[in-house]
Structures are given as C-alpha cells and as structure tokens.
Amino acid sequence: MPKELTWLHISDIHFCPHTEWRDSLSRGELLDYLKTHFTTSEWPQPDLIFCTGDIAFGHSSKQPITEQYSVAEQFFDKLLDVCGSEGTSLPRERLFIVPGNHDVNRDAINGDAQSALKTWARDSWAHVGEINQRFNDKSTEFLDTIRRLNEYGEFIKRYLPHLSDPGQRHVYAKTFEINGISIGVFGFNSAWTCAGLEDDRNIWLAAEWQFNTAKKELQDSEVRIGLMHHPIDWLNQTERELTNRRVASDFDFWLHGHSHNAWVTPIQSHIVIAAGAVGAGSSDEFGVNLCKISLSDNTGAARLHAKKAGASGWTIMPIEEVAPAGLWRFDLPLRLRKSPNNPEAHQSNNKTNVPQDPAPFDYIARYLSSEFERALKSFSGQPRVWVEPILSRKAEIEKDAKLEPPVTAAELVNSIASIIIKAPPQYGLTCLAKYLAKLAWHKPSREFWLYLDAKLLRPNSASINTETERVLGPLNLSFQDIRRVVLDSWSPTEKEGPKLLIKIIEIFGETPIICMQRSDASMAERLSNIDLRRTFETYFLWTLPREVIRKIVSGYNEARQIGDDDAVTKRLVSDLEVLNLHRTPLNCLTLLKVSEFDFDESPVNRTEMLKRVLFLLFNTDGIPTYKSKPDLKDSEHVLGYFCELLIREGSYFFTQNRFLLEVQRFCKDSLIDLDTHIVFDVLYKNNILLMHGSQFYFRFSYWIFYFVAQRMHHNEAFAKYILSEMRYAQYPEIIEFYTGADRKRDDALQVIINDLGECYRTVKENCGFPENLDPYKHATWESSPETQEKMHEVITKGVMDSNLPAEIKDQFADRTYDPARPYDQTIANILTEHSVVCLMKLISAAARALRNSDYAAPETKRQLLTAIMRSWDQLSKIVLVIAPELAEAGHASYDNAKFFLVGDFGKNRNERLGAILSVIPYNIAAWHQDDLYSPKMGPLLFDQLDSPDLSSIARHELLVLLILQRPRNWSKHVENYIASVAKNAFYLNDVFELLRHEYRYGFALPDTLSEIERLIKMSLVKHLTGQKRPGVKSIAKTSFKKTLLPERPL
C-alpha cells in the first residue's frame, strides 16, 4: 500500500447569529461542493480533517457562545458525512480542532490581569519564564486567564472527547497510524490570552512548555503535524522567535488560520499551510485546502479552493506560477524525504542516541547546490550568473593593493585557518559563503561546512544550537560532522555582533570559522575591544574588472538578449561610473534589468534606477492577464507606509499575514483600491522579499530605504520625523533616495546644513585644535627624519594648544609611552563627548544628499559642500591626533570606532608614523568619494576648490578626489593646483605620486592617459626647476627616466 495521507484543512467558520442568513448558505455550498469534488476528482476523501480555530464568533446577548457550538456540531456532523466513504461517516476521532480568538468569551476576561499580560508582552524576554511556569503549575493567575475558554472546553469535552484536556490547558497530543504512516498531531492553544484588537504581536503562547510537551509525545511519529490558530507573527517577540525555531526543528507540517488567506509556504525543514475562512464577509477571504502527501515518492500537493465574488459557489483557486489550476505542489520536508540509498530517511532521529550515518553524498550535494542556486536568484526571469570572486589579502582601497596576487576560492577551501572575509553590503558575500560550502563538500574528504546567518541568530546557546539542529536534522548529520562554520551577514557594528561571534567560537570549540563580515566602505568600524581568543586571517572581496563584467553580459545575453556584448558592456561600465555604483554582480544585474526596459536611456541616479526596475516588475513581468496590474505609484505608496512601520519598530521580519493585514488596513483607510496579494507576490517572486521559516524580510535593506523615502514625499509628518533629531544620519540611503526623487529637496539640504554645522562646531569647540594646524606645510618632496620630526612637533603643539584634557596631552607628548588600554579608553571617552561618530555619519548623509540635488538652489549647494569640506578638515585633524597610536599598536579607537592599519606601513614605529601621515589626505578622500561624487558634481567641486575659505588640508583632499574620479575638465584644475604649491612641497609630491598610481592602475582612455602623463611631467619639472607653471616647451626640454611612467598591467 502506498504510504499516502490526505487531509482537509478548514478554519475560521465564525458561527454568528447576525450573519447566519449569509454564512449558512456559504457552508451549505461548501458541503455540496466537496461532495461533488470527491465524486468527480481523482483525489480520495480525506483521512483527517483539521480545523484551525474560530469555530464560534464570540459571546453575544443574541446568541450565547454555547448555542454557537451547538450549530457547529451540526455542521461538523454533515462535514464528516461528506468526507466519509461507502456510506460511512468519517469518525469523529479523525477531526482535530484548536481554539481561536473568536472562541474566547470576552465577558470572562479579568481586565486588570489582561492589561498586565499586554504590558509584559512589550518586555517579553523578562517575563517568558514566568508565563511558562504559570502554564505548567496551573497557577491561580493561569486558571483565571483560561476561564475565557470554558465554553470551548465544554464543547470539546462533549463533542470531541478525544481532544479534551483534563489539565484544562486545551492542548493535546495524538498519535496514530494511517496507511502505514505513524502520525503525530499536536493541537496548540494560542487563544488563552486573547482579548481583542490589542492581540496583534502581544499574544502569549507559553511556547516552551507546549513545544517541549509536543516533542516528548510525538517523538516516535514519522509525520508530525502542528495545529495553531494564529500565524506565528501574532505572538510577542520572544514567543515568536522561539516558535519559529521549534516549528523548524520539531514539525513537518504547520497549519494555521486567522489570516483568512489560503497560502502554502514550502521550506526545507517544514511546510506551512494557511487556510482561508469558511465564514467571511469578503470573497478574497474564503478558502479551504485539501492536502495529499506521499512518503513513497517524496512529494505533496495542496489543492486550493475558494468562493469568489459573482460565483454561484465554491471553486478551485488558481495562483499564477505557484498553483496553476489551484494545485500547489511541493517536495516533502528534508527529514521525510527518501532516497534510493536511504529508504528510511523519514524515520525519527529521536528514537536512539546512537549517531546516525551521514546522508548520501548526492543528497547533501543536492541540498548545498540548491542553497547556492537560491542565493544566486535575482529578479524573475533573469539568468543566474556566477563568476569566480576576486579575493585579496589587501583591501581594494589600498594604493598598492593591485600588486598583491589574488586568492582563489579553492585556496580558502583548502586552508585550515579561521578567516574573516570583508566586503561592503551587496558585494556577494552570501553567494560566496554558500559557494565555499558547496566546494568543501565536493573535496575528496567531503567536508560539511555549516552555514549560519547572523541575522537569524541571538548570542546565546539556545538560538545557535536550535538553528544548527534545524540544518543538521534533515541531512541526518550530527554535530561531529561539522568541519567548519560559515557565519554570514556578520557585522561588528551590530549591537550584539561581537557577542555572537564569541558565543559561536565558544560552542564550536576548535572548529575553524569563516566569518563573512559586512564592512563599511571606510576603514573605520564600530568594534569594542574584545578578545576573540582566536586568530583570524583577513581577506577582502573586490569589485569586478571589465573583463568579468563582459562575462556577465555575455551570459545574460544568452538568456535574454539586450544587445551586442561590446555595446552592452561599454554602456554598463559607463552607467556604473555615472551612478557611482560599485562593480558588483548585483549592481550589474540590476542595471541589465533596467536595460531591458530601454537600452538607449540611462537612469540618472539610484532612485531612478530602482523606480525603473519596479516599473518592469509591476508592468511587464509575469502578472497574469486575468488579474489587474497594480498601479506602481499606489504600490510604492502602500509599501512606503509598511516600511515606515518597520523603521519605527526597528524589526524587519514579518509574516505574509501581517504584511497583508497592515497594507489592506492602510488601503481601506486611504480609500485606495489595490490588490495587495499581487503586490506581495511580485516582491516575493522577484526575490525582493525572501523567506526564512514562516517569516519574510527584504533581501536588501536599500529596498526598505527606497520605499521609506517615497513615504517621506507622501507624508509630511513622517518626513519631519526622519529629518528631526538627526535620524537620517543612521540611514544615509534614505536621504539619498529622498533627494534623488526630484533632485531639488532644498528643505532637506537646509536641515542637513544646520545639523552638520552644529555638530562641526561642537567637535571643533570641544577638541579646540588650532585653526591653522597643518603639519604638511613643513613636509617636503622627499621625507627625511628631520621633516618627520618637524611634522610631529607641529602635531604635538596642536594637541598642547587644544582643549583636550591634560592626561591626553601628557600621553601624546610622551614619545616613549606604551599605549595600553587606559590611553585607548581616554581617547574613546573624550571623543565620544565631542560627537565625532555623529560627525562622520552626518558627512555621509550630507554627501549623498548633495550628490542627488542637481536642481537645488546653487547657494544652498555651495553652503552644504562648504560644511562637508570643513568637516573633512576636522576629521583629518582627529586622525592626525591618533596617528601615533596607529603607528604603535596598528589600531586606534574613538567613540567605539576603530581604525586599522591595513598593508605594509614600515618595520618600526617612526617609519609607520611617517607613512600614516603621508596617506591621511588620500584616505579621507577615498573614504568619502562614493558618497559625494558623481560626474555632474564637477562644476560644484571646481567652485569649491577656488574658495578662499577652504583650508590647505581640505583643498588638497578635494584635489585628490578630482584626480581619483576625473570629471570633465579635471586636468585644468589639477594644473592650477600644481602651479599654486611650492616646488619642494609635500602636496606637490603627493599629487605626483597619485598621478603615477592612476597612470598605472586607473581605468582611463588613451586621451586621459595622455593628460595624466602631461601632469606627471609637469609636477616633476616644477620640482626640479622651480618654474611656477611648466609648459609644453619646458617639459619637452627635460630628459626623464624610463621609470617615470609606470608600466600599465594588461
């Protein structure tokens, strides 16, 4: 006999006297429809019936809740008749029910006690232990709370005694066998603290008690099914997190109702199935599911049925792509799947403590390949393109980085060291992490690398172990099979980031770790002084060279032709430069998607780029013709509202049900007609939303920031909220998208000017550095010990004349002082008081706003750039102050921000100090260039360069930016600068060396290379002859060494 199981899943019947005239007809039509379906369909009658809550509508004076249950009994009798076979009803023992919020008698609720439960839910971590203890002990408080379900309990005791709970908790665990399958069903009670509208995200479940009981009672079952009325996201935060983990590890199928939305969420570890409503006021809310699984061929399917408006009765409910003809097919959870070499894979691993044999090689290989392919997925219909990553031991920002030989992924896989791989967000670290895990398994030694996502973990053993078990269990692997841990999405800037890494090291002992670290584009990172008790090798993931971009274009054209490979590559490289985007696979694929719309027209900024992507997704890609296409502006409007909620809450995970409820409520209040289901489907289908467990999240945070920026345009109060109290500084991308929408947000620019000016004045006043502090005035073309000593004296005098505390002045002046923690902490504390981190964040936000404000008033743009350059100058002085500490220890901290020396700065302290001082201007410009620069900024930058108010350090840093980015007419202004500085000046030498570096490594056309060559020679001739502005004739008369122009690599 095939090992198959079929069940009917219904929910939310709502036996209500007020709407009985309507609902009785709907229920009758459902019974008739099911009877016909079982007669004409190839599907058999169900083996089981599950009803996930809300049998009653609630206590009312017109019809007490006890009478509603009497009507329910009649309906269930008829349903059991319909689902029976050969004239015999399905036994009542095959009907399973759980309570819902409408099954509560609200007249029995103690208002004061309920208020306390709601208050506790806001600080759920602090009270979850007490809630579980009350549930276990059946305390006085618990018995008072559970009284609201007394009528439900009497109904169950009378009609379905096999589900009656003598413990009065209204939960149950049932095990039985059907068709050779050992089945375990646990009925959860999520209604015992429900009271009304305030339930959302405040519900207490006593999850630990209920899941522990379920695990104990169902441990010998092959198939484990959990029933609960509410979607998981209706629970409070602590209960929600635990439930998500335990569902993944303890159950194969998770059924719920409440949301009135039929949906199937297949996950590797389990399948979540939501039923629509049997009794509802809107056609979109109706829905029941018939499900069938086969343990013989590892497959399952849910047949969706609904009652649509205008229809005479119930019918199938097709959903484009996922459930054509209303049939949603899915693979069984991994734990249940058989393979030819492992026919008993579905059996429980809890039966014995003997370690299990590893799952077959091909099965784990398929799982790892599937995970890798999933990470590669981008927009719907786009080809999945993978190019070998470019890795290096040096950061791409370092001047000599390109001299370092690249490192291959295979080398990392064969290394036995613990490793940190750094890259900014959206560089492809997740794809790389899963690629490495896949490569490791294909080694002859077949190493299993455990992939963990830091976004989904908390820094405690329970969280980490639960996630580990969730991955290992379906693969039939044990803790001892783990050869390496890959921790993805880790960042030292996250509040609990360092604690999480320390905990993982503690749990996994000597197991090597590869940590994929999201890093800031600057070299400054928020990181506490923590002892990891382990040495990590550091590598950096680089952007893509032109030849690799060509490979992406070629692969893309094979699947979806845009144009000639050469033409598309040239346009793509140009657009990346114009939009100031890093050459990452994601950015390439996004722009290629935009090119499908109009290859001949480029977006002007990132805001426009994302708007074009959304236009394609909402208008041309895969929305069924029988469904109305949602208006893009309407969609952006409601998504802006939803993302506003996420930003205000600071929580970015949500279920589909919560998404639909929130946006539907907003549409109703705003009188907007929008099919929110299609909006969700478009986002999910195109991988803008990803799923983990039963929850969803935006794959990349910039989508949240984009929609929030749209919301700021639509809601003045929210715009003021973001712009007030410098909140925008926490999310620079929001201000970038906000200003980029119409490129004339003078209101925002004025706020930023005022905030940046105030922060600058605070830092300047409290630090009190001399206005004219510039050690580079005393530096010369060729550095010597004497000039370095003079520079140090200038810096020391500046510190002595500053407002820094006496202990810092003493420590700085003591050249032989051993820099230990007290010094580090003193610097950190004093600079915290001076709001340096705030200044750095404001610089970033201000630069992004300015870059996108083409049409703002010219004077406003000048004021903002002046404020930015003043802040650069102040930041340079701060780095000058910590330079000795960097030279001594290799790192220096302030305000929880940590600067590292990356690269070879010399063998001794004095060498390192000289090298650090010489590269500060370059680093200041390089850190901020991505925020500030676009080709359209040229005239404004030139205007600022000529400003008499610009300090000598900031002027030089601005010139460095011009050399690095080279806007139109850049060489003329570099020439003027060369003419303005002394022949033996450090500034002239720095320009000379930077031009040589760009000649060797920079991406430049022949005409640009000729200009760079001319300026290199002009700088050297000035140094040699002292001419103010050496011209073509002077350059031609000079004999240059062959090594003057470095050889450009192929």
Automatic annotation (TrEMBL):
- Supply the Pfam families for this chain: Metallophos
Database matches in SUPFAM superfamilies? Metallo-dependent phosphatases
Q: Name one GO molecular function term.
A: hydrolase activity
* Positions of the Calcineurin-like phosphoesterase domain: 8-261
User: Sorted alphabetically, which Gene3D superfamilies does this protein's record hold?
Assistant: 3.60.21.10
Judging by the UniProt lineage, the source's domain of life is Bacteria
This protein's name: Calcineurin-like phosphoesterase domain-containing protein
Classification lineage: Bacteria, Pseudomonadati, Pseudomonadota, Betaproteobacteria, Candidatus Accumulibacter
